[in-house]
Design brief:
Layout lengths: L1 H16 L16 H4 E3 L1 E8 L7 E10 L4 E11 L2 E10 L10 E10 L4 E8 L4 E8 L1
Parallel strand pairs: 5-7
Antiparallel strand pairs: 1-5, 2-3, 3-6, 4-5, 7-8
Amino acid sequence: MRYILKIFLILIFFLTACTTPQKQVVIPQPEPSIEHLIQKTYVETVELDRTHPVANEMKLIVRGQLPSPAYVFDVVDVVKDDHKIYLTPFAVFEEKTTALQVLIPYETSVIVRIDSPGEYNLILIGRGITLRKNVFVD
């Protein structure tokens, strides 16, 4: 009886040791949407830098806040429509970063070419708010 039990245990050992492992099915993770990775920032002010010396250009100073330290400021999208200038600042979300949820201030500048002097309507589009300001360029 002991002899049969030993043979049975050895047989079970060989059968389990010699079997090929099952293939694991890896479910691909969907790519995060672009809206998740790049987002508008919170905006506070837009100002005209009157010390900018180049004719037919205006330098605008944009101030705002990033949603958290996991965001990195990226770009200000500028769209010019006659005497209206639309400014939309964007930040990129660093997906693998763990950060506290605190606002991070930023300041950036953008150069906009203008056709002629006159009054321009600046429209700063941010996260949850749109600011408007009229400026006169000599």
